[in-house]
Structures are given as structure tokens and as C-alpha cells.
Amino acid sequence: MTPLRGAVARACIVIAMCAATAPASAAEPTPAPFGLPCQPKAGVRFCEMTSLQQRVPSFDGVPIDLNVTLPATGDGPFPTVAMLHGLTGDKSFVEVDDPDDPAEVTSVTADYNNISYARRGYAVITITSRGFGASCGTPRSRRPYPACRRGWLHMGDRRWEARDAQTLLGRLVDEGIADPARLGVAGISYGGGQAMQLAFLKDRIALPDGTYAPWRSPAGTPLAIGAVYAKMGWSNLATALLPNGRYDGAGTTTFDEGFTPPGVMKLSYSIAATALTAYGGHVPGLGGDASADVLGWFTRLATGEPYRGVKWERLRGTMIHKSIYGIPGVPAPLLLESAFNDDMLDPRQSLEAYHQARAQGAPEVALQIGESGHPRANNAIPQARALSRRGADFLDALLQGRGTPPPSGSVYLSRFTCPKDAPVPEPITAPSWDAVGPGSVTFGGGSAERPVVLRSSPLDLYAESVDDPLVPLGGGVIRQITSKLLHSPQELAKALQGNAADLAGDAADLTKPCKLTSAARSSAATWTGPAAAQPFTVAGTARIALDLRTIGRYGMVSTRLWDLHPDGRRRLLARGVRRLTPNEGGRVVVPFGPYAYRFEAGHRPQVEVLAADSPMYKPSREPFTLAITGAEVTVPTVEPQPTTRP
User: Fold this and answer.
1) What is the pTM of this model?
2) 3-state secondary structure at position 472
3) CATH entry 1.10.3720.10 includes domain 38-255+321-435
4) Taking CA atoms, which of 324, 401, 543, 620 is between 20 and 30 Å from 44?
């Protein structure tokens, strides 16, 4: 070896030794959000909480269970999204092991999951909401942890659940993981309601007494939400459970209008939600904490009319904190998503937030409605994927400057199709909700001399259950529990101890929104429109104006919009309900849940009116009689003047 080559070799050895003994701080740091170790997973890094001792205390000390998913490289600060789960779920609700595995893709997780978002460059925090799963929801997670004694759920309350998300995002900012200028929220169902609240809160927190304060991280950094994607959520939990039929989605409303008069209880959904919440979550005893008294709320609503008195005012007083109302200021940019056929949270919940956010000056507000939601939604995966991609693109545009958000006020409708694996139809787009359905089909009739008389009836599970969204779902859940018990008890245990929403399985397969039934069992009060000479597309909120007289204090009308096929079978499209005032007479208007649907040639729109629709809606406590002397139905259409024939 020559002297020069030997010198080079010795230099290389010295450099290698120096590199090997360099302090760890010289190497690229490895992020550890909340002290959690991160492991490679499906092209990103997954930082999992695996013990109760790792939980993160919220603002009031309640320990919160969570995971964090990071992009494949980098140490932050990252644009960050908090993903909030559905009722009775946990952090795993929107977590997957591999989003490219078809076996893992559902109508919920198709392009809407922690790994897909981390691949887009986000730090993703998946949170188990307080009172569920390991966030004090299970007995094991509460014992022996004193901080869990009051760690019950508050049913999506901005003073607790929304503030938990704000606290955790602030902690990530202080750790250098989250970029304070690029904070976002994506929530679904129960989490969608919280996401709407966080958009309206924007840069404030709601305190337990209902007042507001600036949002700061624990270390004092001023924070604000930069963008929100809210899927199938609620703007007002009270009207979701007790609709009075006054709001049709055509502008702003108020919290008080939702209670004037008190509405009609969604019985089957309320039973299911209360049972699952009480079983799968941590709730206080009956009559306990007013902000969390789930059992007390159900008892008061189920007791029935008249809705007044101390218990009623107690319920009403806490419900405003589970809504978007009363929050001052300019909301954050917001994309709202709902589903047609969603009998639990129909698109009017998103429309309330859409109009209210625009009225309060939000810089970006857009609406999309399709087929991914609660029963009877079709939950077709191709449609769900298209909607979720638009949601992620919206966040990208606002939080990462990648792409352009949809024009503010714009509407995107992906209409209902059958069967659920049919090709995704061309969307219906409009610059605003008011421009969605410029045309209409109208029909009706009646006679003051020969009124149609309807009488209320008591609860009848057998007579009406064929059209109730949850009766078949309940049977499906029982079958799934039995199957898991026999073949996979570990999966059953996991569902019962954490993500209990897994028990619902594919709701669309159970509730069969595409099914056809005979029109022979129609109500006496039924009006059928003209047959379509050429196909036409319904888009917007249909309405029926009824001329009626009521005898009784707590009357109600329930309405159904059908697609009547030429062979006499029909498909249920949308529902409406309206609480009547005592002995009400004159003209009343009942809106249907907004819809987008194609009527084929020869098909007819049909509207049916009932005085009872149980168990979907709770029957009135006292009997009443309706005398209907006339009806006028208006169905909005994309076509300015659809061609019809008698």
C-alpha cells in the first residue's frame, strides 16, 4: 500500500469511528408523540397506546386513550388532523392496518382512515372519546383510576368532548409534532357533531359554565382550527332526536325554533342509541349530571307529551351545548357531508350548519350529500370513496395549500342508486343549495265534502316495522353477536369492550334500502303523481302541503315519499314528520328529508300520509283524529320542466 493510499484508509477509519461515536442528538430525531414509540406500518409510522398508564390527561384530568399516526419521514411540525369516531366506537373506528387491502375497506374507511391521511402528509390523532372504550368507558379502564370517576360521556358536548380534542391538539403543538397554523378535524356521526362544533368554536374553548375563552395550548400558544370535514353529523342533537318538522333546509333557523313546538320522538333510534350508549359507555346514574344524563333524557322523551316542567327544561337547557347554536364569531372553513336515506341524521342537520356558517361569515363552506351514512343509507363503497376523497382534498387545500377547495357555498350531490354496486352516477352540482332543483313536479287533490280521515294508533311493532330502519338492523346485530360468539369470541370481546359499533356490520345489507314492497298496503291518504314520459331527476327537498283539521292535543303527521313502479311495487325514498299544535286546522307543510334520485320512464312519485308511523316515531300519548281535505305535493327536479304523462 502506498503512503497516500494508507493515509486515506486511516482517515476513512477515523471518520467512521467518529460517526459511530457521535452523540445521538446528531442523528435525525425520532418523534414520540405523547411519549409513544412509533413503528413502520403500511408506509407510515404508527404510534400506538397499548397500556392504560399511557393515556393522556385531558383539561380536567380525565385520561384519554388515543393513537397517533405520522408520515413516513420527518419530525414535524406536521399539518395535523384529529379524527373523531362514531357513537359507541373508539379510536379503532377509523384505523386500518392496510388501506390497500380490500378486506379492510368499508363504506366508513374507504379513503377515510388514519393511514390514508398520514400518507397525505398529516400527523393523525385518533381519539377514543371520553366515556367510551379505554377512555373510562369500560369497567377495566376505570378501576382503579380516580380520575375516571367523573369520566362519563357528555354525548358530544362542546364543553367536554370538543374541548378534549382541543386539549390534545394543543399538547401535540407544544411537543413540536403539530403545526399550530395547520390544525384540522375530521369527524363522523357522533364525531361529526363534535367536528361541527369545533368549526364554529374555531379559536375558542367552551368552559363548563357555557362561557368562552381563547384557545391556547398548555404552553400558551394561540390556536385555531384551520379546516373541518364533518361527515353525517348533527348540528342540533335535540332536533335530530325530536324533530318538529318546521325546518326544511332552506335557510337559517334557530335553536328555539327546534323546540317550538316540541317535536316527535324518533323512537327506534332513541332506544337503540340509548341502549348502546348505556351498555357500551360510561354514563352517570339516572337523574345525575344534567349535561350527561342520557338515561334521564330518554326517560323524559319516552314519557311523552306534554313536554314541559322541570325535567323538560333541564333537558332543553343542556341540549344547546350539543349543537352549533350560541357560538359567536366566524367559523372555520367547513365541508359538510350527509347521506340520503339517513333516517337518523338526515341532510337537514348539515344544511343547518351550512346556512348558519355562511350567515356567520365562514370563508369556506361547502356541502356534499351521497350514500354513506346511517340506515337506510345504501353505503355503496364507490360513492363513499368518492365523497371521502373530496373531503381529504378539502383539507389538503386549506391545510397544505395543495389544490383548490370547492367554491364556497357550492353543493355536490351523488344521487342514490340501486343496486349498491352500480356505477357511481355523474354528480349533481350547484353553486348553492337554492340552485339545486330549479324545476318541479306537482300533484295532489282532495275535497272538502269528502275528507280523508286518519286516526292515531298505539305502538304497533308488527304493523309498521317493515318500513322501520332499525327493526331489521336489530335482528342483524343479534345474528352477528351469535356468529362471533360461536366462531370468533375474541372479536366479540373486542367489540363489546371497545368499538361496539362493529356489531352493526354492514347496515345497508340489513336494512335493504333498495328493496321493493307492494303498494297495496298504502294509507288511505295517498297521492300519486304523473308517470314520467322521460326519466327525470329529483334533487332537493320535496314538500306536501296539507289542508287539515285536527281533534286532539298532540297530533302528528308522518309522510313518506315513494317511487311507484309500473308493476305496482314501490321503493321508499324519504320521510317527513310534523308535530301539530293542539286542535290545529288550516294548511300545514311537511318537508321530506332532502333527496337526489332518478325516476325512470313510467315511474310515478307517490306520497303517503299517516297519523302513526311506529316504531320509527313514538305514537302520541293521547288519541287524535285528522281530517284531510286537500294536498299539494311539490317535488323539486334538476330538469326545469320534466316531461310527464297522465
Assistant:
1) 0.91
2) helix
3) no
4) 401
